[in-house]
Structure formats: structure tokens, C-alpha cells
């Protein structure tokens, strides 16, 4: 598969059909791995990096999970292609800026992505739409075992997997979920949730990880520690934290409807009206409006099956995807016109909202 | 005609069919008159005021223009009824607060209203939709002549008509137009217009006259001076100032479309989308949104015949009318829900916007 085919195929994240819990948009597990006795990417010289890249690309691409997928050197991708990969959460912002020596292997269904020579030699990640922590873990565990047969990983019996940054030592695993928490945001309860989650050893971040903001009321929750706890244990603990956040969000939604349905419906209605009629829309405003309409779909204001349209637009309304659809790069103000035009078209045939407090509560 | 019948009949202002110039919503001429050798209302005792009220009501109600109209003492009107009369520009805010001794006579078509014992014994006014200064002047001139046959007005050969406030001395006439100037507001040119208009001896005020704000980009332009100039001369001079403001507004609209059609269409589209989908709407936000949709109708974004729907809603979305339609008073937050519900219903079948820069320019 080449990059053009990948881009024209839907992202795993737009397939929310299999998701039982709409509040969790996506589950992700990633492992950091490094080749034994080879310099970490930050220390390696160009020649070392090139050799490591070659070894890793060959090993990863031949794993059964990655067959007929994408296998590229980052240097061969345009800026726009890199941006699209970031927007699909297939590569990190750091890797998208890589000049040389970096590579990427993506499975055909876009659920598995392996970054080469990012901070570590290998960053293996599995994405699954909705809440599918165990399934994501099983997939990544199988791939890791497969790679271990052909690559010699840096491993210490006392410290576990060795990584470029000491915070990843041990399991070198980070499991996370991308959650849609509009009611907690509207009710002003996110700060409280973040504190509680931190006390349980988990971290809350914005949509694109560390240092990014939570536009669209979308947050990433992930484990903080990688040392002294088995992978399955971390996955289980994260799962129960996620369930507790889901319960709080559901509760916050019910309270909002009980205490001030008019205000909530007003927000959802206006968001829909603006998406259907605006002529200039920034990326961040679009995310926030789509987020409110998504909440509407959860509450029965819109048919539940329309949620997948919104999930697709949450990705396709972003700058890279938008420019790709227009076959060319353009400046931000031009993008805002294109984004509004695209969303007007998408929402022209979107079902009209039906507000009735009794329809809510199906999460 | 009783007050209930008046309220249930459409205001003269909603009949914009006869108006060639949509930018002028309404033309108004008013005359202040006082009975000779009787104390002004501010000085008169209760007994005097009652006698003046009786004399004036009888004389005005028997004028041909006022036949089968409304003839009431303010004391007999509820707060809500008074508020509705203010919203239709039939009485002033001052008169609506009158406790006793004040009266009102309104013609059957709601184009002529005579306030009794407001600041002067008689405040005679004629309203006409659109730009109809001469027609308004002819109507009021006829009524004034008719009243003069039966009432003895305070008049000085050197000062003209005597009035409670010296600023009205002379003709005691104020002619005004209510203008819709959204493009001048968006382009930030209103301050310049106000200065120029002032230099020509005219005054710019908000929607409800002195001290009110210009929500919905609606302004009142009127003559400042009443002394040393004949009525016809004032009317003529005001007419040419109005025409010049119309030209500036038309020009500002053309420039906005040329320079940034996207931004203008964005404002109009969002206003329409919010009116169609909001669930909470304050009076002032509703005015501003309706104002933008009205601009859209002027520019061909909506069919021109829908402008009369907006003109009606500019009056009916106000607090008094809204509460009357719901058959009872309610608090402001409840009103905001009712207003949004009313506008959702009205806009559900409003034609969808069609944006095309070439359709503009029909003012």
C-alpha cells in the first residue's frame, strides 16, 4: 500500500460502529522498543540511524499484522502527507518533523502503526475505535512477540525494556483512551476529574498528547508509570479508571438535562445551525461545534447512526485532510472558507434536531 | 376599537409592502401642542390634568382620522398593554409610566397616535412604514388643522407653538426615520455618519429614541431644531439627509461584498442558523440576528418578500408582544426560552439562504 492509498482509505477511528461506549472515541496502546547495543536515535549518527531504519523496516514489514501495509521513509513524505498522518494519530508531531533516518510502517487497516527512529528505535502502537483496551493489548502483544523473534531488544532483567527516556523504562508501555467529555467540561468538573485521575497514577492530556489543548472536549487519559507493574495490570487499572470517568460523564449529562435542558439544547442547536450555515470556520471552532453535535447524537437529539459522520468529520475537518481534499495547500483563511463550505455540504442533509428530554440517556 | 383589538391587529410598521426603500423601516412626524392658558402637564394639579384629558380625548377622538379608533385613559391599561404600545412606537416610555391623568387616542390603522398629558398636553404623531415623509406630514397637518378648529392652542406670533420644553418651541415638530444600517455598523462607519448628520442639524438615536441603544443596527434620525424654519423646509432637509445616509449604506454593502463576501455571508448564515436552532434568545440578540437576516433579504440571500416576516418579528419578538402571545407575564429567562421557541417555529419554513455575490445590490 502506498501513502496515497492509505490517505484515501478511511481511518480506523472513523469506524465507531463497533463501539458500545460512544464516550470513548479511541483506545490506544503503544510500546517503546530499542535494539540491543545500538545508540538511541538521539545519539546515533546518520549512518547508524540509516542501518537501524533498514533493519527495523524489514523486520516490521514482514510481520503478519503488517502485510500489504504502508512501509516508508519519512523523508519520502510531503509535509501535507505527514500532517494527515498526525491528524489520524498514526505518527507523533515529533516524527512528522524528522529530517532523515526516520520511518513508518502502517498496517493495511490503519490500526497498527510502527514509528522507527522517533525517540526510540521502535514505537509500536495499536489504535482501536471505541473502548477496546484488551483487544488493542492482544494485537500489540502478538506483534511484539513476533518482532522479538527477529530483533534483539535492549532489555535488563532488573529494569525491563530500556528506553531513551527513563520515564518509559520497564514495560515501556503506554495505554490510553481518547474520551469525549463535553458535559464534564460544560459543568466545570474537568479540573476535579483531572486531579482524581492523577491520584490514581493516570495522566490527562489534550487531543494530540502532551502540551496540546483539549479542543472539542476531547481528552487523552493514559497511565503515568511503566515500572513495577505488569502490562495486564496497567491495562486493567486504566480500564477501571476509564469506566469511572464514563460514569461521571453520563451523570453530568443527566444532571445538565435535569437542571437546565434549555441551555444544553441551546448549545447543541446553535452548534448544528452554525455548522449548517457558516461561511468561515476555524479548525478549533469546528471541533467544538462537532463535539456538541456529537453530544446531541448521544442524547438522541440526532439519530445515533449519524455519530459516525461526526467522527469522520472530526478528522476530515482538520487542516491536512481539508487541504488534501482540495488537492493542494492553502493559507489558513482560505482553509476556513473551505472548511465551512465542506461542513455546510455535509450538514445540509444531516437530520434535523429533535429535542425531547425523554429521549436522553442512551450512552 | 378596544385595546385587545388593537393589539391583535398588525402594526402599521409590519406592512413594508409599500416601501420602496427597505433601508428605511419607518417614517414618523410628531407635533407638540398645548392648550392656551392651561398649566403644562408637569405643573398642572390632578384636577387640571383630568379636565385637560377629558377635553383633549373628546376633541381628538372626534377628528375624522381617528374615527372608530382606540380612545383610552392610560390608567385603564395593564403594564403588559402599555409595553406593547411602546414596542409598536405608539406611546413613549415616559407615557407608559404615567399613573393618572394621561390618555391615548390611536387611529384604527395604527398610523396616527395622540398622547395626552405626556410632556405636553398633546403629542400628535403619524407613523408610516418605509420612507414616506411627505405622506406622514400631510396626514399630521390635516389632523392638526382639524384639531385647531376645536381646541385653542398656546401660540405666540414670535415664538410659534409654546411647549413645556423650550427645545420644542416654534414648529414643535419632530420628523424622524428609523433606519436599518447594518453595513455601516459592520464597516465601523456609524461614528462618522453620526458626526456628519449632527453637522447638518440632525440627531441620531437608538431604536426607542433618546438614551436607547441601537440594537439590530436600527437608528432614528431626526431634526434637532424647531425654531426659525418652516415645517416643509425641515421635512425637505431631513429627506435629503436620509437619502444621503441610504446612499452610504448601499455603498457600504457593496464594499463589504467586494472586499470580504465570505465574512458577510458568514454573519448572515450564522444568524439564520441560530434563529432556526437556538433554545435561548435574549431580546437584544434576537434583534441583532433578525437584523442580519433582514440584510440578507436585501442582498438577495433570502427572497425579498420574506423581509415582511422579519419586520413583523422585529416587533413580535419583543418582551411585551411575546408575553401577550403566551397569554401571561413571565420572567426574563422564561421569555428567552419562549422567544427561541417562537423564532424556531417561524424560521423552520423560512427559505434557505442562497449565497451568490451576483445577486446583491437590490436596495
Automatic annotation (TrEMBL), chains A, B:
InterPro entries: Arg_Kinase, ATP-guanido_PTrfase, ATP-guanido_PTrfase_AS, ATP-guanido_PTrfase_cat, Gln_synth/guanido_kin_cat_dom. It comes from the Bacteria. One of its GO terms (cellular component) is extracellular space. It is an enzyme of class 2 (transferase). It holds the Pfam family ATP-gua_Ptrans. PROSITE patterns: PHOSPHAGEN_KINASE, PHOSPHAGEN_KINASE_C. Keywords: ATP-binding, Kinase, Nucleotide-binding, Transferase. GO terms for biological process: phosphocreatine biosynthetic process. Belongs to the ATP:guanido phosphotransferase family. This is Protein arginine kinase.
